[in-house]
Each structure stands twice: as structure tokens, then as C-alpha cells.
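User: Hey, quick favor. My workstation is busy. Could you predict this chain's structure for me?
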Amino acid sequence: MRITTAIVGLLATTILPSALAVWPLPHTMEQGSSNTQAYWININVQGKRSSGIVNNAVNRYRDIINKESFVAPVDYNRGILKTSGSLQGLVVSVESSDETLGIGTDESYTLDVPVKGQATLKAKTPYGALRGLETFSQLVTSNGDSKVIANTPIHIEDAPLYTHRGISFDTARNFYSVESLFRTLDAMAYNKMNVFHWHIVDAQSWPVESKTFPELTKKGAYSAKQTYSYSDVKRVIEYARQRGIRVIPEFDVPGHTYIVGLVKPELMSCLNKQPNWDKYAAEPPSGQLNIAKPESIDFTNKIIDEYTKLFTDSVFHLGGDEVNRNCWAEDPDVQAYLAAHPGEDVESLLVNYYTKVHDHLETTGKYAYTWEETLFHSDYVPSTNNTILQVWIDQESVQKALAKGYRVVSSSYDSYYLDCGHGAWLSNWDGNSWCDPFKTWMHVYNYDVAANVTDPAQKKLIMGTEVAIWSEQTDETVIDQRIWPRAAAMAETAWSGKSDASGNVRTTAEVASRLHEQRFRMVGRGINAEPMQPLWCARNPGACNLP
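Assistant: No problem, here it is.
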């Protein structure tokens, strides 16, 4: 039987066989009606071309598969499945040993599981092999004293719809240990996500080591123990790379920079204005780099020089969001500069800042990644269309960016801000936060970045999507529950798309049972993903739908 994404929806009201419960949904799947028994599953790499990424992944997944004793909640009462053959392990073959990980890395794979004999996994790159290993691990479930792969033979051909499937992760407002970042990266790999957008500094703290400005970390970190050394950063980058995940850093300028004022107060405007901080910033503490001073540009460019060397990805995020004009308009140094330069204003100063900073980044060989305000809330125009825009304000921003020819990643706050829904965090305001209500996994799943985009050329400019976790009310004690399984909902729509090959849009009712299974699987692997429904609902698909 040939199973494509077009057919899965028709099976939503039945108990899905395990092969169909893969998350995210493969592009194409063919399956049979037999079951294949396995005890110890060995995984071997075929060929002379060696890749450390693949070898390490094979060891990791061999351990996961053989130690895991997983039964989907829907199968709680299925009993022992009868089998027709035995699996003689999995053979992995990869065309290229090139471990380059970047924007256009091929993540495709083909997986075949026979009724008896050896399963085979073929990929063009090591990272396609990683995705195939994750899929294979999800096919294996417990079956009494052994394991089973149901509905064999299975043939899967798979590749992602979008090349950018990420999490924007804020470690500045509250600190996260390296170990908690590792756990997040593991969970991302289980969902075939491939970008960890590390919002590493902000107004509240500067936890990352700086060799250029050592006092930034000394005075800007919450404590000496709440820092990321160069070694820590390299460990995170390598841990992510081993799982096919790119690490893109964000150093947000010129706004969100109060913390710089603890070391360089002479470069700052509106530094920690109290109590009326809201006139000068989106949240306390206020403070922006003084864009009338050439020294601010020099400082920013030195930050770029330092961290483009530490972070190895070809993309570097420069922030650019939520700058406040009042902050500069009332600054005496800005006022003095404008008085001495008739014809200039705050807007021209901001354009000059963006131009010089972005042009400098280009000399490092990196692509600029920036929040939409940089281009849409100022008169700045990049010298090329290589800039990647991260849009978050509304769906019209996607269409506007595409119409201008820019590559787009969407983090629509209305669907993808996972921190929202916990009320205000200001101590004297018993009300909602600006982005409430809580974004349910269903709301996350229903978002379509390509909605109303009909031009094929513009669709090609959509790189993908990112959920965001801002950390005003989050730290590592609750991070798993804040992110999962809701980020998994985004992961599927970014990998598999919102619609099947026939154009039918998948509904949350159709996918709920598979996401239940993925959530329970993640919990078994040490990710404390929050429950979606009572266990009874997970065991009885469709019975908890609204009539």
C-alpha cells in the first residue's frame, strides 16, 4: 500500500499503525501488512567514506533504539503482535562524507524496512542520514520481550519542505545551563529541527565571554557562574552540529543594550530611565547605543569581529528590533549633533548606523539576519538582497518582505511566541501580557507561513519558520514544558508542509494521535514535554473532539 501525505488524513479516525505515526510526517511512505520482529538491532555504516557525524549518530541511535521500551498510548491494549520475519539490523550508506552544515544542506533520505532481512538507509549527506535514523527509531516499538516494526515492508522517501526549522532561544533574561541547552538540542533532533537561534545577550545580561571587552561579561553576567565561556559556546555548537543543527547567534543592536552601559556608559542613550521606562523601551531596563557617536559603530563592529569568529555559521543575527526614537530624540548628545548638522535627523542617523554595521558584517563573509523593523520601520535599504528577514508582527510582513525580494523566516508572535499566555510579569500589573493568550499546539500547527503567497518565485524565498521562547518568565526549570510538544507542531509543518500533495490541508484532529505518540516518546527520552490531553484521550483518538 502506498501512503502519501494525501492519505493520512483519511485514516485520522482509526487507530494509526506505528509506521504512520512518524513525526514529522514523511513525504512519501509505502507500507505492507506484515510485522517484523527484532531483538538487538545493530546499525552499521557501509562504504569507505567515513563521517564522524554519521558514526556518532549510529552509536547514539543504536543506544536509543535498543534501550527504549516504547508503546504508543493508542496501542496500550494491543497485545503481542504476530510477526512474519526477523530484522537483521540496519545498514546506512551515505554518498558524501562532507560534513558542511549550512543553509542549503541536503537532508533527504530513503529508508527501506523489509519483512525479513536487513533494513537500508540511504542519504546524500551525513545530515540526511541523521534524519533517516530518527525516522527509523520511531518505527521500532516494544512487543513483549522483543521489539517490532509494524506494517512491513516499508519504503520511505523523505526531505524537508523548508531549509530553516528553528527555535529562537533567549538566554539573557534568565540564564540556562549548557546541559539544559543540550537537552533542547536533543529534542530538536527528535523533531528534525535544524536551527538553534541563540538570542544570547539582551538588555538584562551579557552572559557570553568577551575577549575584546572582558568587562562586558564580568559586569554584565548575572554571576560568575552564569556565563558561557568560549569553550561552552564551542561545546554547544559541536553538540548541535552532531545533531544536524546550526547555531545562529543574535547580538541585538542598537536597541536592547542597557547592559553595555555598565561598561561603556559614554556610548549609551536613555540609560535605565525610571520610573517611566516605558517612554524609552519596550521593557525595562531602557538603554540604546547612541547612534550619533561614531564610537558606537566602532564598538558594534568590534563585537561583530569577535563573535563572527567564535560562531561558525554563515548567518549572523544583528537584531534591530524595537528601537525607541524617544530615547535618541531626548539625548543631549544626539540633540547637539543634529543642531550642528542641519538636514539630518534621528532617522538618517539610524540609517547610517544600520548601513555601516551591516556593511561591516558583509566584510566578514556572513549573511545578515535581522528582525523586520530594521527594514520596515526605518529607511535603511541593504546593498544586496542577501539579508534574511525574521518577521514576527503579522502575516502581511511575510508578503511585504517577499515582494521586496528578501529571504524570509517567520516567527509570527500570534502563533509562534511560546512564552505568551502567563499574564503580565510587571510587579504592579495584575493583567494580561501584550501577547496573551497561550498559543496551543493546535494554534501553532494551524499557522501557514505561505498563506496567500501564490507567486512560485516568492514561495522559494520562504526559508522557513522559528518558534520563539522569550525568557522573562522562563528558565531551565520549566523550559521543556514551555517548548514541547508545541515546537514539534511547528516542526512538522516546516518539514512536511501544511497541505498534502493534493492540496488538502491537514487538520489538528488528523494529527493529534501522532503528536500524542511523539510527546510520549520524547518524555521517555528525557524531555519533560507537557501533556496535550488526559491520557484517556490519547488512548482513544477522536473521542475528545468537539462535536
